[in-house]
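Batch manifest, entry 17 of 40.
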Amino acid sequence: MHQVALLFSTRGSQELALKIAEHYGEELGKLKIINFSDGEFQPAFEQSVRGSRVFLIGSTFQPTDNLMELLLMIDAAKRASADKITAVIPYYGYARQDRKDAPRVPIGAKLVAEMLAAAGATRVMTMDLHADQIQGFFDIPVDHLYASTIFVDYIKGLNLDNLTIASPDMGGAKRANNYSKYLNADIVICHKERKKANQVENMMLIGDVEGKNVILLDDMIDTAGTLAKAAELIMEKGAASVRAIATHPVLSGEAYERLENSPLVEIAVTDSIPLKNNSYSKIKVLSCAPLFADVMHMVHDRKSISSKFII
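Output type: structure tokens
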């Protein structure tokens, strides 16, 4: 007998989950959240999940309630005798804490991986982790998808002459190099120095952008300080235009204003995190729902997902 697949969503990712469910060809399952007066909450499935493959969709962006809600849903599914529990996490929070880069600090990405497995997840599906090696923090299968599947067609559709791919920091050099090879484009790298988190002290450009149409690539935009500074530097060096592509629109603090006031022509992001403000004209959202729906089908049908890796 073919195993049933059921899809559920956390409250924070409801909009994306509805799109995924539509592309998947199923309705979202019935789930209610019981709220207590002190802020505690309890998810409860309103239908049987016994013996089913359950996909629990939820990005773990702030506040931490989004992560806690997902963990509680995983535990509930396990205790309700779900057969397979896949945590679909388009944006994996705490991924920047992937190593001990200072004394007496946690490795948050590893802790979250252990919490997901301890709660009962049997598989994790995510997209554009801050560092690829985070997959090694898990002892359960991880489907690590790449937004390049979405962005490459978008870049080709721009039909830009003298295309150059740029990384706003050294950490993104590998990603930029992969794009540049696939698109047969030049590459430049911005080297930044920080004195503390979310604050860029100094930046220099490695490579030539004179007369080029530049696309800055990053896995996420948080305060947008780095991206805005990199865009300004690229235009100062004689670029014809500069755009940005980033998978996860964290967009905290004054990020929206910084992007709107920057020389960036356009900023393309996915809907892994819902935008807090839709009134800014420069931000273009490309949905990752079809990608996740396709891979969920492949996983459920025990098919290879390698066709989804183009870069």
